[in-house]
Amino acid sequence: MTLTDHDTLRTSQPLFSEATASDYITLLKPRVMSLVIFTGLVGLVLAPGHMNPILAAISIIAIAVGAGASGALNMWYDADIDIIMKRTRKRPIPAGLIAPNQVLVFGLILSALSVITLGLMINWLAGALLAFTIFFYAVVYSMWLKRSTPQNIVIGGAAGAFPPVIGWAAATGTISFESITLFMIIFLWTPPHFWALALFSSTDYEAAKIPMMPNVKGEKSTRSQILAYSVVLAPVGVLPWIMGFAGIFYGFVALIMGGIFILRAWQLYKAPSKVSMLASSRRLFRFSLIYLSGLFAVLLLENLVLKGLAAWGFV
Q1: Closest to 195 (Cα-Cα) out of 108, 302, 289, 285
Q2: Three-class SS string for the chain?
Q3: Segments forming the whole domain that contains residue 59
Q4: Total domain count for the chain?
């Protein structure tokens, strides 16, 4: 099957289907949503001041629903290439479990509900940021960048980096240097994370005619760029400590994990064979998940511990 054979997939299936709740959950991209919820929560908790717990919960739910809406709209638009790629062909639309028009309506309704809820119940800066994030991921990235440039994940990565900024804005009504720093950590993390994935999934992307870096610039160039981004990412990961909104424990963890990230990227860069290159790319991909979740987990726990000590009068 070629990409051309599936150009009409989104319009050729029945108007309605008997999808299950599990199918709709899959459309929300739960793995991606969990990371969005977590980083958004960290941005909200790190923000100065105190937010009503109910309003904080509403903020996180709205951010989660917005992320799910983005995932659904992405699956709706990418149905024609999802059916070609091995790792995506079992998604609800290409598997024939749900009609494309249902996914489109589902995504649009969730988008509107999440933005309106966040805007009316919290503040319109957070609502506007969420709306921009959904638009950026669904339209700018999915409909334009993904199929047109090998820099797709670099520019498109901004969508995944916005949740902590939205969380901070929900709590304070502002955008700060601290929230921008959290944005930059995720933004710089995204290219080495996804290019490592692309190195051992290059045949999938090639079949779907998606111009990922390994397929366009080659493996050597991709490995060089992964190393370059890793070298930049590591010191940026330490900035929360340097800027004073994270403690020394976070600084220590960020230094160690940043060093390991560079080491993994260096091992990938110097891999002497195809087999070792694929193994190194898988190791880097797995560690990149540990790196990002680890940094944000330490930020969250450190902040909660400090607030707890303050509440008890110890600091």
Answers
A1: 285
A2: CCCHHHCCHHHHCCCCCCCCHHHHHHHCCHHHHHHHHHHHHHHHHHCCCCCCHHHHHHHHHHHHHHHHHHHHHHHHHCHHHHCCCCCCCCCCCCCCCCCHHHHHHHHHHHHHHHHHHHHHHCCHHHHHHHHHHHHHHHHHHHHHHHHCCCCHHHHHHHHHHCHHHHHHHHHHCCCCHHHHHHHHHHHHHHHHHHHHHHHCCHHHHHHCCCCCHHHHCCHHHHHHHHHHHHHHHHHHHHHHHHHCCCCHHHHHHHHHHHHHHHHHHHHHHCCCCHHHHHHHHHHHHHHHHHHHHHHHHHHHHHHHHHHHHHHCCCC
A3: 1-175
A4: 2
d(CA 236, CA 182): 9
pLDDT tens track for 85-128: 888 889 999 988 999 999 999 999 999 999 999 999 999 999 99
Q: Please identify which residue in the block is written with the tokens 């994030």.
A: 133
Q: How far apart are CA 185 and CA 201, in angstroms?
A: 25
Q: Is residue 235 part of a domain?
A: yes
In a domain, 314, yes or no: no
Identity of the residue numbered 227: L
Residue found under tokens 């599990």: 22
Do 301 and 290 lie in one domain? The reply is yes
Instruction: Kindly state whether residues 99 and 183 are assigned to the same domain.
Output: no
**Tokens read off for 2:** 């070629």
- Residue 58 has which token pair? 């509403």
CA-CA distances (angstroms) from residue 212 to 14, 78, 146, 200? 32, 15, 8, 12
Stated pTM of the model? 0.91
Structure tokens given for 203: 């045949």
pLDDT tens-digit map of 219-265: 999 999 999 999 999 999 999 999 999 999 999 999 999 999 999 99
Same domain, yes or no: 119 and 260: no
Tokens of 161: 């980096």
